[in-house]
Amino acid sequence: MPQKPLVAICFTCFAVAATAQEEPMPILFTNVNVFDGVSETLIEDANVLVTGNLISEVSSEPLAVANGRIIDGGGRTLMPGIIEAHGHLGQAVLPTQVTGSEDWQYMASLSTFAAKYYLDRGWTTVRDAGGPTFGLKKAIDEGHIPGPRIYPSGRFISQTSGHADFRYGYAAPHPNEAETEPFYNQFIGAIADGVPEVLRATREELRKGSVHIKVMAGGGISSQYDPLHTLQYSAEEMQAIVGAAADWGTYVMVHAYTDATVRRAIEAGVKVIEHGQLMTDETAKLAADNGVWLSTQIAFLGEPPTPEQIEAFGEVTAAKFNSVREGVETSINFAREYGINIAFGTDLWGPRLPEIGNEFEYRTRYFSDLETLQQATSVNGELLQLTGPLNPYPEGPIGVIQSGAYADIILVDGNPLDDVTILGDMENIHFVMKDGRVHRNDL
Ligand SMILES: [Zn+2]
Question: How many angstroms does the Cα of residue 301 sit away from the middle of ligand 1?
Fold first, then answer.
């Protein structure tokens, strides 16, 4: 056969790629009240101009748009898209215990569901805290499927017996043999012990596209073989991981509940504590002195386990959950007292994905509407900047409405500064734009 059919196939591919990447026309929003991600008052009756994928102007004066489109916001609040500081798009819909036994393509398909689920609700960026998202991110960025911006971690890095050691109970003892199990073949976690192995695991993830590194530093709730009190990774191993990440210009975030795990991580140079509920006053002060962030999640631990959940997950898991839950208020009080940066995230993955919107309501137990709004937008936007030269979206800031920022915009019924919980229900969000492209428009 001659070459012709092959050429035709190639042209088709290029046509698909070109459609996905076409430059959007300028859009002028009129008749909106703007929450800019920072200020305690709205900019009333404002106009916002989007050119390409960036916001080009925000003004109380009328603006003109040439060859563009005008969207009358009908007096709604225009604000930055919501940022998730702790998601797991690669582990959507299914509980961890079964993810390793499923077909990889089924898992990937569920990830695309989760990505759209976030974006439909106005969550335009997800800082992924572990799991396979490199391919998902690429497909979204190329415009083939809808989804948020993703800041990927790649695989969780865990010691043997650590929080990501999800081997079956009778698994072969050698760590390299562990990696032949499905959980590891699906690129969810990596088991590495000793300095050479943790360096290799860290560099493997950086090579594939991790923009920050996620390490399991202590006992977990959902994992079966690591009691909560366990310290995971020696100081030497932790320092090695931090050093390898720093050589690439980025930082390490750790899963850590107990005081000892949080302290060891901070002393090793870790920049973000995920969870941190059981840290003490002194350790919180150490975190503040070192500019360490607290990435806390409240809805996740919002209610004690029901009898059905105890039945399903077992008494040990329920007891771990309750221990961590007891520390929520204290850790937040410490963080507030010492002025630690507090991120807005949910950790609501798998079967709990539909609860993400509840995070707004649970935050009102501890924070004002303004504080919660800032955390979910501009504060999380600052957190994303810790990725330094690895930032996959370096053209402008995320999480603010200002000239030069990425055009990640939602339109909301009502004023979230008066009641932030309205953001938890997508019925109140009528318009979602990401990267200057309209994803949803129910106006
Ligand atoms: Zn998590």
Answer: 12
Same domain, 192 and 243: yes
Does 144 fall in a domain? yes
C-alpha of residue 242 to centroid of ligand 1, in Å: 19
The structure's pTM equals 0.94
Q: How far is CA 301 from CA 163, 220, 223, 416, in A?
A: 18, 13, 16, 24
Task: Tell me which amino acid residue 220 is.
Answer: G
Using DSSP, state whether 144 is helix, strand or coil: coil
Residue with tokens 């991110």: 137
Contact 90, 73 (CB under 8 A): no
Residues at Cβ < 5 Å from ligand 1 ion:
129, 347
User: Distance, CA 387 to ligand 1 centroid (Å)?
Assistant: 18
Torsion of CA 351, 352, 353, 355, to 10 degrees: 150
Domain extent for 121: 82-366
pLDDT tens for 314-360 read: 999 999 999 999 999 999 999 999 999 999 999 999 999 999 999 99
Ligand 1 centre distance from Cα of residue 188 (Å): 12
